[in-house]
Design goal:
It is a single chain. By secondary structure, the protein is of the alpha+beta class. It is built from 2 helices and 7 strands. The protein has one domain: Alpha-Beta Plaits (2-Layer Sandwich). The strands form 2 sheets. A 4-stranded antiparallel beta sheet has the order 5-6-4-7, with helices on one face. Strand 5 and strand 6 form a beta hairpin. The protein starts with a strand and ends in a 9-residue tail after the last strand.
């Protein structure tokens, strides 16, 4: 299987079987930052609390990057009916993303490497 890698607007993408898959951004050293999905179970969590939690994740990510460990908080998707939140990060390793969660004081069930395809890429 042929895998063509390219870059556009700062994102590293791969073309596989006719689909463009976003891999991540490059850090200051040129390494591709892998994307990770953080899954959280948040019983009793309300939609009003989402900005505060997202702000804590973004702050911890920014602080770690300023300290020399590149990591980016990208977005969160809250599913109220399931009491779940899925947060997307970029970092050098799962351990780096775990450290962000610990610093931000955010609970998590698991952290897994993730890829995504947008509607424009299909």
């Amino acid at each position: 299987m042929t895998l063509e890698v390219g870059e556009e607007n700062g994102e590293v993408t791969a073309l596989r079987q006719g689909l463009i898959i976003t891999l991540g951004h490059r850090d200051e050293k040129g390494a591709i930052m892998t994307r990770y999905m953080v899954e959280r179970s948040l019983p009793g969590f309300s939609e009003d609390q989402l900005p505060g939690a997202a702000g804590a994740a973004k702050k911890a990510s920014t602080e770690m990057t300023q300290e020399g460990t590149p990591v980016r908080y990208l977005r969160s998707t809250f599913v109220p009916q399931e009491e779940k939140c899925f947060c997307l990060f970029e970092g050098d390793s799962e351990e780096v993303v775990k450290t962000v969660q610990d610093r931000a004081g955010l609970p998590y069930d698991r952290i897994v490497e993730a890829r995504f395809i947008t509607a424009d890429e299909v």
